[in-house]
Amino acid sequence: MPSGAGEILMSVEIIDDAGGTVSASASWDTDGDGISDTGFNICGKTADFESVPPSTDITVFVYASPSSGCPDAVATAGVVKATFSTGSSGGGGGGGGGAVLGSPKAGLGIKDTTPKKGATTQATATLKVCGDHAGTKIQLQKKSGKTWKKFAQKKLNAKCRVVFQVVANFKKATFRSFWPKQDKDHRAGKSKPVTVTTH
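Below the sequence we write its predicted structure tokens.
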């Protein structure tokens, strides 16, 4: 299902002929490497609009059996209904006339999570909802106690990714990528934390 130019939000409803709930997932490949980017899961229907990249083919994969997030689901035959929105005021994701702020889907991958102490490893920060975000700033943050502190910051390239060099001069550290809010259509985004342990 292709999203249109400027369409950054999507809701999905799956109507099964047998009347049951259906489990599915939505994904896309924004960097053209043949591997689907992480999208979102669906149990019958999405609770709200989800962020998607504009002008991109969105794949909705229907599971025949239940999933962990949808334990009673069973698929027979039916219809997958998708609604796209630009998120502008009064649009499908408006929520009473206001815009829905989607997540830019920040991600973080660390090349070696068990490096030798003092070695350098690479941390790749990404935005899966790229759109017009190329050139915006993204941070690599390091956890300190119960808070997160900026470790480094760079501008995203044309594919909305950037590589940080991390000198592993620690025993154990936890990192995440963090995209500060920089447009009116998206809230700030943060990745799942990744822990690096040296030896």
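The two ends are 47 Å apart (CA to CA).
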